[in-house]
Design goal:
Layout (H helix, E strand, L loop, with lengths): L8 E4 L1 E3 L5 E7 L4 E7 L4 E4 L2 E2 L5 E4 L5 H4 L3 E2 L10 H15 L4 H14 L10 E5 L6 H9 L5 E3 L6 H11 L2 E5 L6 H13 L7 E6 L6 E6 L5 E5 L6 H5 L1 E5 L17 H17 L16 H17 L2 H23 L2 H15 L6 E3 H17 L19 H10 L5 E3 L2 E5 H14 L3 H23 L2
Parallel strand pairs: 1-7, 9-14, 9-15, 10-11, 11-14
Antiparallel strand pairs: 2-3, 3-4, 4-5, 6-7, 8-10, 12-13, 16-18, 17-18
Helix pairs in contact: 2-3, 2-8, 3-9, 3-10, 9-10, 11-12, 11-13, 11-14, 11-15, 12-13
Length: 471
Amino acid sequence: MTNNDSRDRKITLSEVLQNNIIIETIYDPKRKETDFVISDGTNHDVNNLCKNDNGQFLRPFMADSDLLTSNFLRLPSGIKDYESIESLFYKIRDYIDKYVHLPDNFKTISALYVMMTWVYDRFDTIPYLRVIGNYGTGKTRFLNVIGNLCYKAMMAGGSITTAATFRTLDQIQGTLVFDEADFRSSEIWSEIVKILNSGHTKNFPVIRMNVSNKKDGYETKSFKVYGPKILASRERFGDEALESRSLTQIMHPIIDSSKPIHYNSNDLEAEDIKNQLLVFRLKCYLKIEPDETTVQELEFPRLKQSALALTTIAKFIGLPEIMSESIEFLKEYEKELTLSQQTDVKADVLLCIATMLNESETPYSKIRIGRIATMFDQKFYNEYSDKETKEYDNGLQVKGYRVSARKIGVYVRKLGIRTERDGYGFYIPMPQEAEKIKNLVNRYGLKTLIENEVKDKIEERKKDKETDSLF
């Protein structure tokens, strides 16, 4: 090869070629060298040069890169075969258990998540893995231990900027690991949330303006931010959609720990597991297909979509107890999400609409927004009017005042329910919106609540009639 050919070389971390050849970079920190592992799924060859689909020569990521030498980017050091997929799963789970206090079902979810990161690009949507807790609950240990096993893990700290985050995600396309508490600026955190809202679904890049050499000075550029994310925070996200994308465990203060106090990120056992996980990717990448039958027991659409990657991996492993424990966790989390939705202002407005529909003996052709506001005051006046001013985020809580029909109309429209207006004011046209309301009731988990409320009303009416008959 001549020196001129060096211009045609591309530096890369990984590639999946059209002929199903998989190329992955490995890094030996002792020799301070990088190489490629090139695999057809059966045979794995270690080399430092190959060609992509365009005939362009590929070179592995630079061994002297700060991303590697600073331990920000963590790669396997080689390849090592595993005994079986089942044994690999339990090796990961036992390693997590060795260092982190977690409930059994979340240990299973965490181990599945680690495996999923190594084949995440086989899925169009993936969840995030998150722990919530204050200082001293083991959040940082969780991030270090889990992150250390994941595919192309990027251990981000508070010093990383928003621009660096999406640019690095685009360059590496691996697993981002970070603690919300590191981002002390609310402005930076709000930008990170935007990345999180785009990063769980394939083909939803972040768009930014870049300085250009052209006359106009700028050009539009897209950055791929799709990939696994392992997060730690002190409280839940305010964004309902983002919350449902995050499989979460609340961490509690550790009083008497039997776990090692010190954790070495260069642990040889972790390196051994990563090398086996690399072989898992090389062998199983093309065998894994999203299996929608694995989420049939779940009801919440967004959670089903997010959990599909994990349940597919659980089924691929092939042990019923792993699938059972995963579904158990997901069902419990689904209940939490449903309860969380039920405390939302929109859910309370929807409850009023649905209650009116169920109490009426004849179908409504119109439901007046003013009537909804009246029922809202009857049901929830004390709950909302007693709140402190600092909790007025939803815009409904004005102490000492009734909620207006106008404000209720805003939340009706936020629910996606259409309103129309006549000479008497705004109303919901029921023939057109009834089916939508029914679907929303199911989505917000209000069906049982409404049925019980209607039963109570019927019982009250029966008692009233019995009382009237005595006179």
